[in-house]
């Protein structure tokens, strides 16, 4: 067989390339991988190809980078022509994906394309909203024997829109499958992960398909904040979530899972399923570590008479390796014709099982000539010692944070931290009206936070808050209106405070806020923000406007009661000064 690549420039240039390479016939498979989401432009190119080669079968998708021999393309449209020399039949099918029907789509495509002499199923799927695991489960209902390759369409990590192609058509949804049916074709595959496990083992405790809600009974977003120091979660799919995938073991295979999306409830979407009860660890990779193991990983491929290689590698891998990505491809591209693209999830076949992989390089070798013996050579490589880009710096910073956190847990006080978290979970005494911590819980929390602040040498502040004119409003508007006002104020307090702040209803119209790791002036700014918000909550029928007075104190070697009494003294001063005051 013959496989040749071209980076699209113009119709004239493409026509000359087709003529020079004598490309024609029903046994011609055209793979199009586009580093653009310009649907009109892609459709124009594909339609021209089908006009020039009407008997060919064209398929492909948008990408997060393409592979053209030893070159990595991050722009333009890469076109690969697979010309089979022996008799071959190509069967293709597209099916739209609607919510929850991925399994049926996989079954339909397999049923439409697989034949008795099928040697390979190439599968491309929409990359952002399709559940790839269920798609492959559908294929498995028809066959688990046929090797499967391909992946989820990409869009250069914009995570906006991906596209699929089949002949003259461009789709924004669904999946495309193509089988190569031949009595003379041989295929072989391999994969490379080479990411290092780091940190403690964790258990998936709540998940649904590729959506994970809790790990170790904790919200996933809290996990990334704690271990990777992620502050802006909306950036997670674009950077840290891809650089530090979760690693697990399935059927003797190391598998990675990268973050590709976030939900409003804090749950996380991964580019592949994670099942409840599975044990995971964070993974870390660097160019040196990934490239050093190539000779070992490529050794089994040297015995296969490859004439062409299709590579479907992860966008996260491409992003991590950066300018070194081509070095992972060169051992193959120097030996056989090579093409492929960077995906949002790779499809792989091993031991009668179809897998969804992430952060992985998958290799599919093709041959119609059993006597062909290519020599796969390993070339020495050197890594450039340039200043790292911002993305690399953020990864290193996150890795450092991860190592520091894990080391701290192992060497210093993991039991103490675990006890602290378990105590938080056990505190069930909430104020029935506002849902805030109640009076007793306040003292329990304050005592614990004071102890922790002393041991960690961290600041701690306390604000005692009293509502101004609440009694008058309650008397004028009634207890029902008063209760609604207290509930609204409680919600406003929680919204204005930070995640680690502890908001309590001290009693009646009094509230208390514990500010861990916070100095007095910082707490003052938060309470001032609360004051402005509360003023807007006054019932429209009331003569008096609700406001607050507060006393704020910072921990100075004081016991819980001493701290409360001092804050109360400051609160009394605030009330005596005419209300609507904050005294520190």
Automatic annotation (TrEMBL):
One GO-annotated biological process of the protein: cell adhesion involved in single-species biofilm formation
Species this chain originates from: Tindallia californiensis
Source taxonomy: Bacteria, Bacillati, Bacillota, Clostridia, Peptostreptococcales
Protein name: Diguanylate cyclase (GGDEF) domain-containing protein
A cellular-component GO term for this protein: plasma membrane
Coiled coil: none
Signal sequence bounds: none
Molecular function terms from GO: diguanylate cyclase activity
Superkingdom field: Bacteria
Gene3D superfamilies given in the database record: 3.30.70.270
